[in-house]
Specification:
By secondary structure, this protein is of the alpha/beta class. It has 2 domains: 3-104, Nonspecific Lipid-transfer Protein, Chain A (2-Layer Sandwich); 116-423, Vaccinia Virus protein VP39 (Rossmann fold). The protein has 19 helices and 11 strands. The chain has a 7-stranded mixed beta sheet, sandwiched between helices. It has a 4-stranded mixed beta sheet with strand order 2-1-3-4. A hairpin with a 2-residue loop joins strand 1 and strand 2. Helix 4 crosses helix 18 (360-378).
């Protein structure tokens, strides 16, 4: 396909935009698509005509050309949001031209495999980029997952601590518990649970960089007698635990292993145990496409990654475990705010990143990645849920003060951000 033909196809697709606006500037000319009064708008400056052909490949082409500097946008988040709202025509065009664009591949070749060796390689490709990189945009807790905001004035650190508190309370943690964490991160959950609730914690990761930091944080907190940090695959864990937590680790499991993951979690819990899962999800209707996709995110950012859908989670739960769902909360609106904070911090730290050896192409890729994900949450192309699963012998503790205050407190955490997000 020539650049000129690709340009005509893309412009024809863009002419279908109605409620948003995109302006493209190329060689001194301006092309406008959509409503002139649109609240959501973006301007794109095209520096090389091969952009059009590459963009028709989807997110991988969009990312590759942005990283190399072939185009610029005044608002990356707005641009991706507009694209998300108008994906159907582009998807149809890509299907029609797939033999020319060479996007059709066998499902098994689409994304890296997540057996034990593959999982370690895939995790290392993202999480072992260097702890200093993540420290540029994460808050002092070093939590790399959705926070919970009581208001937009709340600091990211306080919002992350609020998330940790909710998890501990939902798991009904106490000094008698032995908590298993699958996916250590940099150790914030393990330290928080052991320090505040007095429980024992066994936490595991397959990232050597994260493992080293987590071990040091446990030592610095004086909690070596309560916390054990392992460098093991979840499939190789042994023992029984009263509680289990896994915070946004399931996305790295790979769709071929979702059933194995839930089966192993259930096997590791006592008959009256509880599991807390926080997961980034995709709509049930988009899941099969997610499995087969070769996207910017699952090739260049999170190799081997695949988002589960709620239907898939429930199906694995019913088919591979004896657990049942006892609580669920959609916190997607909080994730858009969380990623916005990360993106702003990352962009403002560009000079520090350069000094650390991260070149311009790498920084552009990560700015696009954070913008891409933020837009995905804002448009609810992806979601984030918190769920609690219970083993057969678990029984709920009687709520103090009745159900009313307890439920009201839950909604008080999320409503301000949710209302603002819906108004945006």
């Amino acid at each position: 396909m020539t650049n000129a033909l690709a340009r005509r196809i893309l412009f024809r697709l863009l002419s279908g935009i109605r409620d948003e606006r995109i302006e493209i500037f190329e060689r001194g000319r301006r092309y406008s698509f959509g409503s002139p009064d649109a609240k959501l708008h973006a301007q794109v400056s095209v520096r090389s005509p091969h952009v059009y052909r590459q963009v028709l490949r989807g997110s991988t082409g969009l990312a590759e050309t942005y990283v190399e500097g072939a185009w610029e946008a005044d608002d990356l988040v707005a641009l991706v949001r507009i694209a998300a709202r108008n994906m159907a025509p582009l998807d149809r065009a890509r299907q029609a031209w797939r033999h020319v664009l060479r996007t059709g591949q066998h499902l098994a070749d689409m994304v890296p495999h997540n057996d034990r060796d593959g999982s370690r390689e895939n995790i290392a490709a993202h999480y072992d980029l260097g702890n200093t990189l993540f420290s540029l945009f994460l808050d002092p807790t070093m939590m790399y997952s959705c926070a919970l905001f009581e208001s937009r004035e709340m600091s990211l650190e306080d919002a992350q601590l609020a998330k940790l508190e909710r998890i501990c309370k939902r798991l009904e943690l106490g000094p008698e518990d032995h908590l298993l964490e699958i996916g250590t991160g940099w150790g914030a959950m393990a330290v928080h649970a052991a320090a505040r609730y007095g429980c024992r914690v066994t936490t595991t990761t397959i990232s050597s960089e994260q493992h080293a930091v987590a071990v040091e944080r446990v030592r610095a907190a004086g909690l070596e007698d309560r916390i054990e940090v392992l460098l093991e695959d979840y499939r190789d864990l042994e023992g029984r635990y009263s509680k289990l937590v896994s915070i946004e680790m399931i996305e790295a499991v790979g769709w071929q292993y979702f059933d194995t993951y839930f089966e192993r979690c259930s096997q590791l819990l006592e008959p009256d145990g509880l599991m807390f899962l926080q997961a980034i999800t995709i709509d049930d209707r988009a899941y099969e496409g997610e499995k087969a996709s070769k996207s910017f995110i699952n090739t260049q950012i999170f190799p081997g990654g695949c988002l589960p859908s709620l239907e898939v989670i429930h199906r694995c739960l019913a088919g591979e475990t004896d657990m049942r769902t006892v609580w669920l909360d959609d916190v997607t609106h909080h994730y858009a705010e969380t990623v916005a904070r990360w993106r702003e911090a990352f962009v403002s730290s560009s000079e520090r990143a350069e000094a650390l050896g991260y070149d311009l192409e790498f920084r552009r890729m990560w700015e696009l990645y954070l913008s891409y994900v933020e837009a995905g949450f804002l448009e609810r192309r992806i979601g984030d849920v918190q769920m609690v699963f219970a083993k057969p012998d678990w029984r709920a503790s009687p709520p103090s003060g009745g159900l009313g205050p307890r439920l009201a407190a839950e909604h008080a955490v999320r409503d301000p951000i949710e209302q603002e997000s819906r108004a945006a």
